[in-house]
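Dear H.,

Thanks for agreeing to be a second pair of eyes. The structure we're designing against is below in token form, covering all 663 positions.
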């Protein structure tokens, strides 16, 4: 089975470009794909708040729900911002496009670098957390947790390479099963807490006697800010839909906005419910037993529903990585379109997905898993920094957009770099919302950086900086390429294009069918054909001359040049000769080197040869004004081997054993 057949089995048949519209997502599948990250954050966001508050004493746990309400309000502001982003920028691109259109190149690249970093971490952290849940349930697998994490990333890569709609179908069941299970637990908990329908009240854990901390004043306020910032992990993934608007079925913007609203309602309902019940039940963070697990067990008493929630919590933690697989390739597409990423990341694969971006993400996230040994706790300090940067820049960009809209008169419109804007009546209050949102996310970002800088956040800051430097360097490269290929200065000056020298050099180690075929080709290209052979012994030279003279009908139109050489590496004198001809005989002209090459019946057989042609081509590539032409000679597998044993042919007709000239 060939590589092509294996690819077809794994990935599936190619989709024609005309099917792209049919591969787009309805709201049900889109919610499963894009919402897995923000919804899965309910498994740990409340616990993140409590883990900080406990520094103030057990009594401070009661502040969990008020802080959660504050985060919920921030989520609503951010969601409103991204709804407006979707409606104003229906082609997608999210924070990058908003910043590019309103704040300039550098802010847009900061947002892009932050998001790309966050998407890589989303995959690594989510998969590692899911595998940790599996190894906690099955301790015998603990020693294989890194391999299991890599397998999970490989599985997600495979699913996404098969197409957007197919991956959405696969992720529907775990996502909705988690939402349904946790929502049912929250409803049961609220009914029992509020005493509705005569339900029995929930048992409340007694708090330890030592409840109060001596921390006060500025220190107290700082802890509260840290708890708020920690709980903002609930915001991760909210921007995903704004990046992938074009993945939705028409009308794209409307469907994307509706899905974002549904996602926010679900995620914040779960987050608020979990936070309220956990606060009421006086649950205490415990490394061995998560807050969600404690709450579910307390409410349900264990049993089927408890294990249902635990199972799908484990699965959605892994599938939350899919948000990264959706948005990393799309954001890379926008960057590549603007010449800040390699252009091959623009291309869609056989299944109409950005397979280059998917593969790059899989490799980078796998490297991170290996470096951190699939330890999500060690990676968490790096997490959420990037998303807060993008939130702040995006809302600042929308703030500037609203100020531009406010200057437009009714009935007028302005076309910007990325969209068309017109007068909007409610731009004043939108402006205020964006100002509050951008200021709040900026404060959260600063708190995260300060509190987690020495724990590892400096790595994220460094990576974002390196990515921005990479973006600029890639862009400069494409500018150089564009300028070098430009024909503006050639109009009316066609004769200024470099001349082609009337010479062809043919490197040759021996005379056989492959070199004779190349020689026939060469003499059709030029009147000055030079067959150049590096001879390392008199015997080799005599044999070469004898075989050359056997075919005067072909060789009469070419000159045989033998260069005596007393060393084994024949490429050095060969390249020296080619460069000498270019430099002394044909300066500032294109010269042609025709390279005969064996093409074997299989890839393994290719490694039986010296690879001289490949090395020669590689070394000549960086030499300006040298054109290489490859003349392949295919070795068929069904050649009758008995012919090589006939005495009248023998060694005299066979190619030299040291010849792969070049191959």
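And this is the sequence the design step returned. I haven't edited it by hand at all.
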């Amino acid at each position: 089975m060939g590589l092509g057949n294996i690819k077809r089995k794994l990935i599936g048949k190619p989709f024609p470009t005309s099917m792209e519209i049919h591969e787009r997502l309805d709201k049900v599948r889109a919610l499963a794909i894009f919402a897995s990250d923000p919804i899965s954050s309910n498994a740990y966001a409340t616990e993140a708040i409590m883990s900080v508050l406990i520094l103030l004493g057990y009594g401070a746990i009661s502040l969990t729900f008020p802080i959660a309400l504050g985060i919920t309000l921030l989520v609503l502001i951010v969601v409103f911002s991204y709804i407006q982003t979707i409606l104003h920028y229906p082609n997608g691109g999210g924070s990058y496009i908003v910043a590019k259109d309103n704040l300039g190149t550098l802010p847009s690249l900061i947002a892009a670098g932050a998001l790309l970093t966050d998407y890589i971490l989303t995959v690594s952290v989510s998969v590692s957390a899911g595998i940790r849940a599996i190894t906690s349930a099955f301790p015998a697998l603990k020693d294989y947790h890194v391999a299991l994490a890599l397998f999970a990333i490989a599985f997600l890569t495979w699913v996404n390479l098969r197409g957007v709609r197919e991956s959405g179908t696969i992720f529907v069941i775990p996502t909705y099963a988690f939402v349904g299970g946790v929502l049912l637990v929250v409803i049961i908990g609220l009914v029992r807490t509020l005493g509705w329908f005569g339900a029995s009240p929930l048992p409340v854990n007694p708090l330890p006697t030592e409840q109060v901390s001596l921390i006060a004043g500025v220190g107290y306020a700082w802890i509260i800010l840290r708890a708020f910032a920690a709980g903002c992990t609930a915001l991760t993934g909210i921007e995903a839909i704004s990046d992938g608007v074009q993945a939705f079925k028409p009308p794209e913007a409307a469907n994307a906005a509706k899905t974002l609203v549904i996602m926010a309602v679900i995620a914040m309902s779960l987050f608020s419910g979990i936070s309220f019940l956990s606060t009421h039940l006086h649950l205490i963070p415990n490394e061995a037993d998560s807050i969600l697990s404690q709450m579910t067990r307390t409410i349900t008493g264990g049993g089927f529903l408890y294990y249902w929630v635990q199972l799908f919590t484990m699965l959605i933690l892994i599938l939350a990585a899919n948000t990264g697989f959706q948005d990393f390739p799309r954001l890379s597409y926008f960057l590549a379109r603007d010449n800040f990423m390699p252009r091959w990341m623009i291309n869609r694969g056989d299944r109409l997905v950005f397979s280059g971006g998917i593969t790059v993400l899989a490799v980078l996230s796998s490297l991170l898993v290996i470096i951190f040994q699939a330890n999500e706790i060690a990676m968490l300090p790096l997490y959420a920094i990037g998303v807060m940067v993008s939130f702040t820049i995006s809302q600042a960009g929308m703030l500037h957009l609203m100020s531009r809209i406010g200057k437009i008169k009714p009935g007028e419109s302005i076309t910007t770099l990325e969209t068309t804007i017109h007068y909007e009546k409610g731009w004043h209050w939108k402006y205020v919302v964006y100002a509050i949102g951008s200021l709040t996310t900026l404060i959260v970002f600063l708190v995260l950086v300060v509190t987690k800088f020495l724990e590892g956040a400096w790595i994220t800051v460094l990576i974002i900086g390196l990515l921005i430097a990479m973006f600029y360097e890639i862009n400069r490269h494409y500018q150089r390429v564009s300028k070098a290929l430009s024909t503006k200065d050639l109009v009316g000056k066609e004769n200024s294009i470099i001349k082609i020298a009337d010479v062809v050099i043919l490197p040759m180690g021996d005379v056989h069918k492959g070199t004779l075929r190349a020689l026939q080709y060469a003499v059709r290209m030029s009147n000055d054909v030079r067959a150049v052979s590096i001879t390392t012994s008199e015997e080799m030279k005599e044999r070469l001359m004898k075989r050359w003279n056997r075919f005067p009908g072909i060789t009469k139109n070419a000159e045989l040049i033998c260069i005596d050489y007393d060393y084994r590496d024949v490429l050095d004198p060969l390249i020296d000769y080619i460069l000498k001809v270019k430099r002394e005989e044909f300066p500032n002209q294109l010269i042609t080197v025709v390279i005969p090459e064996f093409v074997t019946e299989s890839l393994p057989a290719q490694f039986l040869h010296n690879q001289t042609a490949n090395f020669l081509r590689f070394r000549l590539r960086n030499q300006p004004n040298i054109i290489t032409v490859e003349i392949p000679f295919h070795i068929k597998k069904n050649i009758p081997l008995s012919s090589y044993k006939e005495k009248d042919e023998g060694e005299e007709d066979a190619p030299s054993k040291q010849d792969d000239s070049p191959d």
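Two observations from my side: The chain has two domains: 18-479, 494-653. The longest strand covers residues 589-599.

Warmly,
E.
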